Amino acid sequence: MAPSAPAVHSVTDLLARAIGIEREAADRYAEFARFMQDRGRDELADLFAQLARLEHDHARVIEEWLGEVNPPVPVEAAFHWLESGPPSPAAHEWLLRLMGPRDALAIALSAEQRAQRFFAELAQQADDDGVRRLASELAEEEAEHAARLERVLAAEPDPRIDWERVFDG
Q1: List of domains in the chain
Q2: What's the CA gap between 81 and 75, in Å, rounded?
Q3: pLDDT tens figures, 51-63
């Protein structure tokens, strides 16, 4: 379920929120790239590193649009990838150790889908034409990221054992 769209009355409001979402994505993708590199999954490390650069570039462009006068709004908890509150370093590290490649892909996919739905909902509800257009563009970008992750996730082997199939087979 997408977080409900907060009141966004101007392009500046939208940019201030979008930058937080882009920064969170860039940070998590970079973290997942290191995680996959440590696990010897170079192809996924490359994918996550590429997505981290893309999100970082998006954030930089949005920062330029936003300008120094309008500080970004901190990312809402609903858009945090791994924690809904302040991160606990120990819990965060523990979660990363338990996570497998499919888990990382699923977390990234879910985050991209949440962001896409958020921007799409905002595009439908906005009164301002500029907000509507920009939110629609951002929703399309997030949908492209989600589609890419869906393809990679579909190709990633599932390490779980289907015990019912093993014993019924």
Answers
A1: 11-82+92-156 (1.20.1260.10)
A2: 11
A3: 999 999 988 888 8
